[in-house]
Amino acid sequence: MGLSLPNLQELYLGNNQLVGSIPKSISNLSQLTLLDMSYNYFSGSIPDTLGNLRKLERLNLDFNNLTSSRMSFLSSLTNCRSLEILDFSDNILVTGGLVGNFSDSLQRFSASRCNIKGSIPSEFGNLSHLIAINLDDNKLTGMVPTTIGGLKELQSLSLGDNKLEGKIPSELCHLNKLGFLVLTNNKLSGPIPVCLGDLISLRQLLLGSNMFSSSIPSTLTGLHDLLILNLSLNSLSGPLPIDIGKWKAMTRIDFSNNQFSSEIPIGVVDLKELTHFSLSNNRITGSIPDSFEMSLRSLVKEKLPSMLNRVGDTNLLSTSGRKGLAANNICALSILQVALECSVETPYERLDMKQVVTKLEKIKVNLLTDLME
């Protein structure tokens, strides 16, 4: 291929069932700017000669069974001074560590789930155009380099499921465009930096399964656009933020398995988009706020009329199947309506059990009737 197609610029082989090793002759495609071999069954070693592709801009070797002795192919790729995207995640690269002296044209570096060992090179801080660093689920050790704080364009930093130690460097608070910070399941410790509350672009802050101590910085409630917050499985203590309701857009909060000892903040009831809220295995005191229960009931009541068309896709069924699905949906929603009538605020307005049985029997009859027609 490298000899017979000398002018080839882009080669897409992704999402097939190709096997065998990567032909070294690919390195002769001197005009190649894009090489995508992802989602196949390629095995063997990644050629060290890929660095001969001096015009290469994008390289995707994701999801294969490739190896590399001492990660030598990475050193060769430092010769590709136009390289923008490098992805070799989900391979079995078992020896060697990372290098960081790539061209500053690099925008995305993804090497998750590759058994990479060693530390994160401080030279990453020189890659001024990096948008994303994904190094999840490896065997990285050492500290998070402070030099990463100089990557002003960085939007995603994902280092979860490694063996990183030390504190979160305060230099990360300089990343004004950072939207995703994932540091779960490491050995990080110390207090959570107060300055993280300055990262107004954050959408996901995942710090679970570490050894963070002290309390939650009150500044975090200033992250109004935060969607997911995971601080579970740490050693955090003290009160929960009172003004938690400022997280208007939040969908998931996990504070479980810490040492929090305050009451449930009343501001939780203002989180109308919240789908997951966990405080299990803490020292929470007091009672569940009445307004929290009623807020949940009001939300269900509000969403109930629109649930019918979201339970199943009627386009996937035959005419009879669609009819049966519709009948089942109506039945399910009718039962939910009975549940709402059983949970109204004042006891005397709730259904007694005779009324409940009568209503359920009627729902059953209607369902059987609809299915028989």
TrEMBL record:
The keyword rRNA-binding is annotated on this UniProt entry: no
Keyword Ribonucleoprotein: no
Gene3D superfamilies xrefs: Ribonuclease Inhibitor (3.80.10.10)
SUPFAM superfamilies: L domain-like (SSF52058)
Entry keyword set: Leucine-rich repeat, Membrane, Repeat, Transmembrane, Transmembrane helix
Subcellular location as annotated: Membrane
Segments traversing the membrane: none
Superkingdom of the source species: Eukaryota
Protein name stated in the entry: Uncharacterized protein
